[in-house]
Design a protein that fits this description.
about 280 residues; alpha+beta; Alpha-Beta Plaits; 2 domains; four-stranded antiparallel beta sheet; about 30% helix; binds 4-diphosphocytidyl-2-C-methyl-D-erythritol 2-phosphate; binds adenosine-5'-diphosphate
Length: about 280
Amino acid sequence: MPHTELARAKINLALHVLGRRPDGYHELDSIVAFAGIADRLTFERADDWSLDIAGPFAAGLGGAPDNLVLKAARGFAQTFADEARYRITLEKHLPVASGIGGGSADAAATLRALRTLSAENIDSGKLSALAASLGADVPVCLVGRSCRMRGIGERIDLLNDLTPMPAVLVNPRREVATAQVFAKLALKPGDKVFAGLEEGADPASCRNDLSPPALAVAPVIGEVIAALQNRAGLRFARMSGSGATCFGIFASTAVAEAAARDIAAAYPGWWVMPTVIG
Ligand SMILES: C[C@@](CO)(OP(=O)(O)O)[C@H](O)COP(=O)(O)OP(=O)(O)OC[C@H]1O[C@@H](n2ccc(N)nc2=O)[C@H](O)[C@@H]1O
Ligand SMILES: Nc1ncnc2c1ncn2[C@@H]1O[C@H](COP(=O)(O)OP(=O)(O)O)[C@@H](O)[C@H]1O
């Protein structure tokens, strides 16, 4: 039986940018949770690595060698001197370059699967360092639970009091490059701009500091937020990560599903997904 691992969508319920480090990366303070919708990976023993990509968003991905799944797999084999090889299949259900960390979630799911399948005792510090080397969002996706994420993504504190929230994810099918959005903030290395989140902050009263630069890159994000706003039962709507996916948090599953049906009918080209976050 092949081993299966889910790579759930990462949602930044809040994302405050505190400043820019001398090395150019941005210091963040973010409340991160995970949605029910996920990519699905399977692993079968083989003589060498291979990756087959299927599913609704397979076409959005380039050649397999650049895929974060294979980078994570090869990184794991090298770091832990593990000689096992796998035929990996990736069912891509999450839109690519969309602020919900699909590639990071896939890389993290690969690391979790290989840790489970390995005969060795895997050192968690080394695994976290490998995750961070693959991308700023990979450590939080490796943890895969609601948490407060700080630094550039390496400092993670679990949040145990976030109850599951009915939600709708909406993506206008416009890819947005993360580096371009951070660049539009126009911070200089060493700049400090905002204070961090308050302890125990309610995500509803927080913000995403990447929304204004993302809107400048992809104005359609304004339409996505407008489509979510003023829906019956909406608690709040916001963009996730560097966009363009936005989420609405709703009072119940029934109102979330009704909103998803209405938005999907009004915008047939968009990806609209009722789900639960947290
Ligand atoms: C913005 C966030 C919020 O969770 O999510 P996404 O929009 O990607 O989902 C993440 O910080 C994205 O993490 P990730 O997508 O893994 O970023 P990386 O591949 O490491 O970096 C892509 C580029 O983004 C910029 N970058 C990323 C993270 C960070 N804290 N500061 C940055 O300045 C850098 O220009 C970097 O070259
Ligand atoms: N398995 C993967 N899934 C998605 N994107 C991937 C993957 N492997 C590599 N990438 C590359 O990573 C980039 C960022 O993708 P993704 O993680 O989906 O963005 P975001 O974090 O903004 O949602 C894409 O442009 C894509 O080419």
